[in-house]
Fold this sequence. Notes:
The chain is built from 2 helices and 38 strands. The chain is mainly β and 505 residues long. It has 5 domains: 131 residues, Immunoglobulin-like; 93 residues, no CATH class; 88 residues; 52 residues, no CATH class; 79 residues. Strands 13-11-37-16-28-18 form a 6-stranded mixed sheet. A hairpin with a 2-residue loop joins strand 25 and strand 26.
Amino acid sequence: MANKIIQGIQINTENIRASGETRPFTVLATKDAVFSLEIVNNHDHYYNFKTKSFSATRSRLNNIIVKNGNYKSSISFPALPDSNTDTYNIYLFADGHYDTKHVAYKEARFVDGSLDVNLSTGSDSLVLTKKLFQHADVSLTLSAFSPNGVTAFGSMTVTAPVITLTRGGSANKRKFKIVIVSAATRNFALKRQPEQNDFMAFVSPTIGSAAIPIAGEDVSASTYYKWPVASVHNIAVGMFATGANITANSVISDYYSTSEFTSLVETSYTKTTTGETETAQPTSRVSSSYGGYIQPSTQERRTLKTVSSKTLPREEITTTVYDVFEPGVQATGDPLVTNGVVTRQAGNIVFSLKQADALKEDTDVRLYGYGPGMINIASGYDVTFSNLKAELNLRTVTTTSSTIGSASTSVAVSGRGGIRDGLSTVNSINIDDSTALPTVSSGAGTVSGAGTIVLSAAQELESGETLTIGNTSKTVTVTGEIEVKKAGIENFTIRIDVEKFIDAA
C-alpha cells in the first residue's frame, strides 16, 4: 500500500498576543492520511480541543483522517499569566500504523546556526514540531528631541504618545499626536512641515578598551578611525555620532586608503576604410612611472586601403588605486540569537573622522539613525509614518492698558512668552490691518510674563482686548499616522528631530 503523506501544518508562527488569541491552523495531507496533534506549553499543560483550554491532564487531537487534502481547526491561547515568556510546542504526528509519513525533511537555521523549527519543513521521523512564543507586550513611545542640544530647545516639554504592541507583531495605521512646548522664555516657529525621515532612533554602544589602528594609518597623535564595540547588530553606516569625546561631525563610514601613479601615453591612429565603413584602429604603448612599458592588447582589423595615419601628442594619465578598505561596520564575533532574533554581536565600527584616545571605554556615545530603514536597524521596529503635519497652537494674550484716543506702537500685554521680535504678527478686533497685520518690533525675545511689546504700526486698543499672535507660539503639535510592520523585542522610543522643522528662539 502506498504511503500517505502529510505535507505540513499551516499556522501563524508570530508571537501570540499577551492578551491571548485564537489562531486557526490547517493540516495539509494526501487523502486518507492519519495524524494526531498535541500542544504543550512550558507549564506542562496540554491543550484540550473539546474544552478549548489548557490543563495538566494530557490531551491531544487523536487519529484524525484527512479526507479532502486538509484538516482545519483552531487553538485558543490564553492570556499571559505574568510578565514572563510562555512557549507552546506543537507536535504533529504521522500515524505509521496507517501508512502515513511526513514529507521529506528540509532544514532551516538561524544566523547563529541553531535550528529554526518554524521555517523547517517535513520530518524524517513520525513527528513534526513548531514552537510559538507569548511575551509581555512592548511599548513604543513617540517623542521629540534636539540631538545637538540646541539652547533654544532647552527645557522644552513633550507629551509623548505610547503605543502598546505585541512583541514582534504588527499593527495597522493608527493616528498619533506629539505636543512640544517651549521653555517659558522661548518660542517656536515652523521652518517646514515634518517628514518621516525626521524621525530617528539612537543607540548607545559600549566602546572597547583600545582603538584598532588601520594599516598605514598615522596614529602619532593617538587618534584613530577604528574602534571595537560590544555589539554591532544595531549599527549601520550613515549613523552620525555625538558624545563628549566624539570628534564633531563624525559619521559611521567605510574607510578607503588610496594611492596614485602617473602613466605617459603615446598614441598613433591609422585611419582605414573597408568598403563603405570607416574605422579607426589605435596602436599604443604606455610608459609607466613604475618603469618599463605596458603594451595594450591590439584589436583585430580588416583593411582594404590605408587613408592616413597620425601620431598624437603624449598624454599624462593619473590612476587612483584603492589599496586599503575597511567596512564601516564589521562583525567579529558570532551572533547571539534569542528566540530567533539577533540580540548581540561583537564587532568594530569605523568613523569618518579620527577619534582621540579618550574615547576608549566611553559609555556616553550616541549613534543616530534617521528614517524607517535606520530606525529598523537601531531598534528592530519596522515602521512607516504618513500624513504628517505640524501646527503652531494658537497663542493669545490680553492688553493691560488702553491706547484708545492716543494710538501707540507700545502695547502693554499680559504675557510675552511665545512672541518673537521681527516675526510675530498681532491681530484683534481693533487692529488696523488696512495695510498688513502689524508685527512685533521689540519687547519680546527671551522673556516671559507681563510687559510691553512694540508694534510695527501704531494701534488704538482697549484694555483687556484679546490679541492673537501669528507665526510663532510656545507650542507645536505634530500629528500623523504610524504603521508598525513589525515590532521590536523591547520597549523603545522613536524621536522626531525638532531641529529639522522647528525654528526655536
